[in-house]
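Loading example: each entry is read as six labelled lines plus one structure line.
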Amino acid sequence: MNEKFYELSKDKQDTMINGALKIFAREGYQRASTDVIVKEAGISKGLLFHYFGNKKTLYCFVLEYSARYQMMEIGRDIKEREKNLFNRVRLTEGNKMRMLKRYPYLDLFLISASKEVDSEVEEEARKWSQAANDVCIELWKMADAALLRGNLTIDEAIDITMLCMEGYKNRMYNLCGDPEEVLGGFLPYLEILKRNFIR
Amino acid sequence: MNEKFYELSKDKQDTMINGALKIFAREGYQRASTDVIVKEAGISKGLLFHYFGNKKTLYCFVLEYSARYQMMEIGRDIKEREKNLFNRVRLTEGNKMRMLKRYPYLDLFLISASKEVDSEVEEEARKWSQAANDVCIELWKMADAALLRGNLTIDEAIDITMLCMEGYKNRMYNLCGDPEEVLGGFLPYLEILKRNFIR
Amino acid sequence: MNEKFYELSKDKQDTMINGALKIFAREGYQRASTDVIVKEAGISKGLLFHYFGNKKTLYCFVLEYSARYQMMEIGRDIKEREKNLFNRVRLTEGNKMRMLKRYPYLDLFLISASKEVDSEVEEEARKWSQAANDVCIELWKMADAALLRGNLTIDEAIDITMLCMEGYKNRMYNLCGDPEEVLGGFLPYLEILKRNFIR
Amino acid sequence: MNEKFYELSKDKQDTMINGALKIFAREGYQRASTDVIVKEAGISKGLLFHYFGNKKTLYCFVLEYSARYQMMEIGRDIKEREKNLFNRVRLTEGNKMRMLKRYPYLDLFLISASKEVDSEVEEEARKWSQAANDVCIELWKMADAALLRGNLTIDEAIDITMLCMEGYKNRMYNLCGDPEEVLGGFLPYLEILKRNFIR
DNA sequence: GATGAATGAGTCTTCATTCAT
DNA sequence: AATGAATGAAGACTCATTCAT
């Protein structure tokens, strides 16, 4: 169905993706209207359905696309020799910030997907936002457990960090719409964890 | 508008509240159809609007009701002399479990409300789910900071605990629909925090 | 169905009639809501239907009642020896004003009935408002044609007068809600007709 | 909102306008169901709202359209040198008859609009039906007062004529649905007025 | 008699999706 | 490929009418 889409110019593809990303991220699956997406993406109603067939397919497409993009980019320039877990976390977050340049609503959309309650796409949404997260966790796992305090295992430290981050982002994305600010605001919490979890 | 509602028998009130709670929790505000709520609650279409006038009013009613109920019940039997933060957390979570007997979807609904993206009710939803959370935090604040490790303050410990819990619940409520299981599953994470944050 | 109604005290009957008259006159048949009528008449929903069975019957009841009342009262104190058509017209209009004391919306309602477009009651409404008018015309016919100018017959003069009056009232009842003012405002036009139609 | 509408073929536009005109004229604003209008106009439910957004906008559109059309057509071929008021009246009425060819319910609708009681559109309805009438009156005012009897002014003669016509039409449109017959039936009354008001 | 809670058919309106051009 | 007019099923909400108390 959407091979046709890939034959478009990269620019046009990105315009359409960003349009969908923005509206889906802000409104959630159900309330996002194809009329608005189409206006935002600068294309006609018919074309949207020509490429994607239906709204669900469009949602799943940008969902998978976003997840895969983040999975590709999240590991950029992260040296293996950086052994401190919390420094690695800071590096992955930095990479997310860089992605905003091309897809400003990508992270916001992925968070909103992890919160999606609409039964139509709930499962798919969870699967991909989870997958994107898991790749990130893999990178964190390469940290050195020996640096951690007492009897804390690396998995435990990561669990806590990830839960905190998810809790924080869920809360913040509702409060402010600026992706960059949200990403930056987590650093203080990261410091607390570092202070208490690293020897 | 809903004084009439309070004149019904407690049983009937609860049936209607639980019906709305269940559908709103599962589907979110927008997708929750009044048709389905009405079927779930075992009443007619007209009656719903007789009592609540419109869908938004119904949502806000169960929202405020749930938040107030949790705010009343969350502090039951929590002794002041329990000084360990994480033991206090376990007690509040235990109280939430007790609430499930009467309103199985109450906690689930309050979580979904904190994630609500529909602009129609977003603000109200955040306000009340926040308020319910805040009362819980107040109870935690009565813990003794002296029991905490190193330079960790009580506010920092609570921040981290709350972020973890939110992150955990957001993740879990999507994965499994059984409120009791979700509530219980957080205990291991609580243990990790206790082990590392208490001297 | 509405024999029961006649067993009520005259006072109570009139309160209910005036409530219905007011709402039907202002809103027309369809838009007049039984909820509002019931409030205006100071009775319960159930009672309205106990007495009248349905909205249409209620409408037809107050319609017939109003028409019959006007037919009874319109001829009061009109001496046979008054021979000038236009003086007779002024007398019938004076009688209508007197009716307002008991049923303030009676004339207004009868006018609105003559304009009713709702197919449910259109025919009945026309029939009775017409009938009330006809009685009035009978009284006018007892005027002396010899007083009229040139070759003008009494029927022609009455036709023109009645058309003018209907046209005037239809226009005015929309513009101002005060029945007394409306009734009085026709007098200048009556003068013009008198000046030109009487020798 | 309704620029789109004007891009349709004139034929299609007129079919839709005539459908709305017919139902609104017969049933009034409130009772006219969009379902019926849609069937009458031979279009789908969605399309109606695609063009007009809501029922009120549709009503106001055909209202303004009808009024403007009548204001344009009412003056056709009326020579300035015709000085007799009642001949001028006959000419404007003749023009209305010609309009029926294209919009059979136009005059009927405009009359019903002048009687509209639904508060949603009452004001607008009165404004435009009034405006259409006023243009007609302007044309009548160009008649020669010197032809009138005695001390009758041109304004008085017009007032009486207009009141008669309104009274007549209100009465007749209820009795028979054939616009052409209604329009023609006024001529006898016009003759009476002419005989008595012209020297 | 009197009440008002309860019903459900009917109304306006939205929106994903189709299709002729 | 690209458009946007056209569709109709589904949703929120209204209101005359019924009925248990």
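The mean pLDDT of chain D is 91.
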